[in-house]
Structure formats: structure tokens, C-alpha cells
Amino acid sequence: MFSDLTRIQKDMEAFAACTATPGSGCTRLSFSPSYRKAIDHVRQEMTACGLSVSMDPSGVLVGVREGLDMSAPVTLIGSHLDSVISGGNYDGTSGIAAALEIARLMQAENYTPKAPIWFVVFPETTGSRFGSANLGSRAFCRLLKPEDLDQIADSSRVTLRQALLGFGTDPDRMFASSAPSIARYLELHIEQGPFLEQVRCDLGIGEAISGVDVYRFTIHGRADHAGTTPMTARADSFQIAARAAIATSDAALALADGTTATVGSFSVYPGSYNIIPGQVSFTVDIRSKSDKSRTKIYRVLTHYLDSVSKEPDIRYEVSDLVHYPAVQMDGDMRRLLTTTARGLGYSARAVSTGAFHDAVVLSSFAPTALVFVPSHNGRSHCPEEYTSLEDLQKGVEVLYAAVKELTA
Questions:
Q1: Model pTM?
Q2: pLDDT in tens, 188-214
Q3: What is the DSSP string of 219-268?
């Protein structure tokens, strides 16, 4: 093997120590103190392996290995360091540890690519702080508008502009500079599902990423006394929202095509045990490789809400939070990664994923590839998330060999 398992382990242990909730999973929100600690580790390791390190105005950390032609389109390798709340220690960090090890290997053999290789760390991929997934990669690709800096804010009303300024970057510089010309993007990530482990396959080669639609629904009913208002005379927003959530789940199950629908956030107002809820807000996350299936789920939900809104004192609102179409990974790189894996003695299969990745954004700008390593019991976004270091190392080996072939 080219890579050093001990170095990979040290990186993963360093990242695991960067959490705001020790003992309760990993919580590392973008630009927070725990996130800064993790970024400092990456910056130190990037510098140690000879990369030119800088912070993009978008908050993306960049380490550059110079190429023979510095004006040529760059190869990007990376992932994210932010986590969900009380999540696991492998989501995103596995890809950053892989990128760091590849950078070390290139330094050890004094490898000079034909064009620059940028090792990147994207913030806010999970959307856990600002409620907008892939925010870092979208900013890096200059897809944000100036007004977004002040309109996007976290639950404490800290705006994206304030967070970036506090992190030491000048976000306005994003709009005075263009995104780099990108030749390709490659990322290693944990599978976050059970398939690879179930079929006893070493690696998954990304084939497609499901499209994602996320909505926020707000149901307005009528707050009343819990003890004196008859059951037949209520405009209970919670009951309507609960039935809407069940109808959404049932519709996804009925499709039986891999479509998922999740009500992940639920807020009840005024939230007292003795008051009938007057308002409920909830999110619906719909994912599928089929645009038609996602649309069908949405229509089932709105049809139900339209029907109940005919009742007195009932109305609803819906706002769009996220819309991404399904994307295909690059066929040439998929074939190269599969051939490389098998040449190194590893089994590899095509895998489609319903998880969100920065590859969704980057695929609009350049050929994109994903290498997946198994997740034990398919668990992710929870403290039980686990991938063995040996499985992670296999992914590093394949990615390293493929990147060298692509950039030599």
C-alpha cells in the first residue's frame, strides 16, 4: 500500500476531538470554535506537506500543489468538515483525511502534476448552521448573490456575512473574483447507507446522486383552551400537520422506487400543554433519482392541505428551501475508478446515493466523481456512525492512484 494507516488514524482522531458536544456525538457547526480547531489542524497538515494554503473569500480552505502549467484548469480533491448536530465522526472528515494523505504521498515522491491540484475543505455542506446545504461549495463556485450574505442567518440571527468576517475572510471579495476553472472534482465519502456492507463490497463508485427538494410548511389553525373546546369544534394545526407528515411517508412507501420523504423539523406554537396549537411549522425533505417521483410526493402533500384549508380558520403556507435535480457522475472517471480499484485487488460496484454532497454543485462546472467506503450497519448522522480505518485506507489507495493517472 502507498498510504500510511497511522497518519490517517491521527487525522481522524484529531477531527473527532473537535466537537462542541463531547460524549454526545460530533457537533461541529461551520465557523464555530470547534470548526476552527479542525480547520487549524488541516491548515497545519497542508503546510507540512508543501501545499500553498489560503482561505477563499467563501470560507473554503484551499491547499495548492503546483503543476507544470499553473494557468491550466485545476483538479479539486476534498470534502467538508462541518457536521450535523450530535452526528458521527466520519461524515466529511473521511474525505478530508483522504485528501491530506494523498497530499502527503505526492510530497513524498515529489510528484508534479501537469496542472495544479487544489485540496479543498468546504464549510456548511450539511446546512446544520445556516439551514442551506452545500452553501460553501455554492459560494466557492460564485453562485451566491451579494444580498445572500445578509439574508442567510443562523438560529441566533448571525448572518453569513458576520460569520465569514468573524472567521477572518472578506466575503465581499467573492463578487470581485471569479470561480477557478475546474478540470474535475473527486471526493471520498462514507456511504451513509447499508448497501456496501450488505453485499460485502470494498468500495462504491458513485453513479448518481438523488435530486433533493426541501420545503417548509406552516399550518395556521386556531389556538383555544385545551379543556373547554370540544373535539368537534377545533382548528388544531398540529393534527393537520401530523396527518400531512403521515401522508407524505405513505406516498413515498407506495412509490417503491427508492424515493424517501422525511419530516425532520417540527415546531409547535404556542407550545403549551393546555393550549390547542394555533400554528405548526415543519420541513419536508424529498429525495429521488426521479424528478417525477419527487413532484408526486409534493402534490400528495399539497392536495391534502388544500382540502383541509377549506375548513374555517385553517390555512397554510409553503416556502421552498432547497431544490437540486438528480445528477449523474462522470462516466469516464467512474470507469477509471472501477478499473483502478479492481487492479489493486478491491471489489467495487456502482452506487447511487440519496445523501447530499458538494459533488451536486461541482457537477455543474466539471466532471465529478465519488468514491464511497462502507458504513457499519448503514448508520450515519448519529454517534454510532462508523467506518473502519482499513476500509477508509482502501478508498485512499484507489483515489490516489486514479488522481495520479488523471493529472500526470
A1: 0.88
A2: 999 999 999 999 999 999 999 999 999
A3: EE----BTTTS-GGG---HHHHHHHHHHHHHHHHHHH-SS-EEEEEEEEE
- Please give the C-alpha separations between residue 291 and each of 267, 306, 357, 359, in angstroms, as whole numbers: 28, 22, 18, 18
Of residues 241, 204, 141, the one with CA closest to residue 374: 204
CATH class of the domain comprising 211-324: alpha beta
Query: Which own/partner pairs from 328-332 qualify as long-range (CB within 8 Å, at least 24 positions apart)?
Result: 328/207, 328/208, 328/363, 329/205, 329/206, 329/207, 329/208, 329/209, 329/359, 329/363, 329/368, 329/369, 329/370, 330/184, 330/363, 330/367, 330/368, 330/369, 332/367
Query: What is the rounded (10 degree) CA torsion for 180, 181, 184, 189?
Result: 10
In angstroms, rounded to a whole number, what is the distance separating the alpha carbons of residues 65 and 47? 11
Query: What is the fold of 5-210+327-407?
Result: Aminopeptidase (3.40.630)
77 forms bridges with which residues in the sheet? 119, 186
Q: CA 151, CA 116: separation in Å to the nearest integer? A: 35
The answer to whether the peptide bond before residue 270 is cis (omega within 30 degrees of 0) is yes
- Nearest-angstrom CA–CA distance, 32 and 38: 10
- One-letter amino acid at 161 equals R
Q: Domains of the chain: which residue ranges?
A: 5-210+327-407, 211-324
* pLDDT tens sequence across 250-299: 999 999 998 999 998 999 999 999 999 999 999 999 999 899 999 999 99
